[in-house]
Amino acid sequence: MSATTDPIPVRALNQVTYCPRLFYLQYVDAVMPVNEHVEGGLFDHRRVDAPELKNKTRTDRGTATSRGIALSSEALGVTGVLDVIEEKNGEQYPVETKHGSAPHDDDGKPTVWDNDAVQLCAQALLMEESTGKPVPRGYQFYAGTRERVPLEFTPELREQTRGAIARCRELTVLDAPPDPLPPELRHRCFGCSLAPVCLPEETLYQIGHPAPAEIEEAKAPPELRRVIPQSDDGAVLYLQEPGSSVGKRSEHLVVKKDGKEMSRVPMHAIRQVVVCGNVQVSTQALETLATNDIAVSYVTGHGRFIGTFSPAPTKNVSLREAQFRKFSDPAACLELSKAVVRAKLSNQRALLMRSLRGEEEARGSHEPAARGIYGLLGVIDNQTSVESVLGIEGQGAALYFGEFGRFLKQPPTGKRFDFTTRNRRPPRDPVNALLSFAYAMLAKDCFGAVCTVGFDPYKGFFHQGRHGKPSLALDLMEEFRPVIADSVVLTLINNETLTPDDFIMWRDACNLTESGRKAFFAAYEQRKSTVITHPVYGYRMSYARMLEVQARMLASFIRGSIPTYTGFTVR
């Protein structure tokens, strides 16, 4: 059965009436995040959804009540499970429960929201086909105000319901979601569980359709308002105790070593788990983490990112198809490569000037390396191939790391760090060991961001031809290397959080000790939680959230929803 003939869930008619973009993301891309409103709806349906009550009829005071009745119609092309069907005085009618509050007309009487009315009417159409009897009315129960509102199934409402079914069919064959709601309906975006995925304000700003002036925010670009959370919920759990094991007990992860419990962490407080080195994670724990959409990333004790155990890939195949088409276009790859390298050079220059500013020159822009990178920024638009952009990026890295040793403050303790050149595989000194470890952590987070959005992380536009490497994750991390990874390294060294004693040498390789890694993880997570201003949209969010926002805007560009992709730069 094709997507255009599969039966449409009745609840989808509610979404498509409320917002066609919401329908597309939820039923075509199969993205279903949960927020407090969704959780509240599930709580309100707990009695309706109880397995012991489904398909059973109870009679009380002359009213027969049946719960959880599944109905389907090939003629209508819809299917659904009805919350409640009541029968009284020979008349049957549907009753639907919603988490929110009922709207009220000018006389103060409760009414039914348009999208709820369409869903309830579709249930009536299913009942009429199943029983052969007319269903003239139904009832909508709003748990927020405890109001039960009658609804007449008029010819106009029935026609609107059939129109919603047709609209669903039209949307399911599109390669990209429709534009966000127009300004007069933009208030529906606030509180929507899909707002962090949809990014309605950001998308409209990019394509030149701003929000209404009454919802402007200070210091934001004209007519743009943030509708996504500022930061991610939950913490990153780092597991690095050699010989320890992780299991599941009730709703907690339990870390043990030598049979003794070391720590216990509630599952709801975790958004990601990072396993570093010789740590065993039980099958039961992995299954529970996957069920709760919590990814588990593995890195070696030396800091090399191995991979991520995550839930099943997102179902939005159309995005991956668009990704492969776009990244097969040399012009598109060149445009995107310029965007990320431009952002990386700009951020390298900003960190360089900030680190080398002196008393006479507040910004450090007099530095030859700063002037050199500025010159590279001026010629990047003239490049005609990804290879030449790669050359510009290499020249910028040489200028930047040529001065990186000067970024390091010399502590009064005399335990100084020296840096002369970038080296890796393996890193041969403490500074390079820190840089490599920081880049591994950033690669892990960028890998998670592109997978969350639905990309294939191994098909990139800039780091091409690197077989076995997560090229797209490496592409995304370029613009964040200076502002996240390099910044963490400088903080750890210049604040004397780490000393040379926190490193060990083995043959030609330098690695962090266990205590050194612990200090690094703390500093890295603190940096990711730092709130900064988005250079395009003007509102504030954490670096951790910024990674996903940039990945989602890249997806919008690939699908053709926005005209350009803009890399992240610090102000």
UniProtKB/TrEMBL annotation:
CDD domains assigned: Cas1_I-II-III
Q: Which reaction does it catalyse?
A: exonucleolytic cleavage in the 5'- to 3'-direction to yield nucleoside 3'-phosphates
Looking at its record, which EC class is this enzyme?
hydrolase
Which residues take part in binding Mn(2+)?
E393, H463, E478
Q: Which UniProt keywords apply?
A: Antiviral defense, DNA-binding, Endonuclease, Exonuclease, Hydrolase, Iron, Iron-sulfur, Magnesium, Manganese, Metal-binding, Nuclease
* UniProt-listed InterPro entries: Cas1, CRISPR-assoc_Cas1, CRISPR-assoc_Cas1_C, CRISPR-assoc_Cas1_N, CRISPR-assoc_prot_Cas4, Dna2/Cas4_DUF83, PDDEXK-like_dom_sf
Recorded GO MF terms? endonuclease activity
> What sequence ranges are listed for the domain DUF83?
13-199
Is Iron-sulfur a UniProt keyword of this protein?
yes
Give the source's domain of life in one word. Answer: Bacteria
Q: What is its EC number?
A: 3.1.-.-
Describe its function: CRISPR (clustered regularly interspaced short palindromic repeat), is an adaptive immune system that provides protection against mobile genetic elements (viruses, transposable elements and conjugative plasmids). CRISPR clusters contain spacers, sequences complementary to antecedent mobile elements, and target invading nucleic acids. CRISPR clusters are transcribed and processed into CRISPR RNA (crRNA). Acts as a dsDNA endonuclease. Involved in the integration of spacer DNA into the CRISPR cassette.
How does this chain assemble? Homodimer, forms a heterotetramer with a Cas2 homodimer.
Stated name of the protein: CRISPR-associated endonuclease Cas1
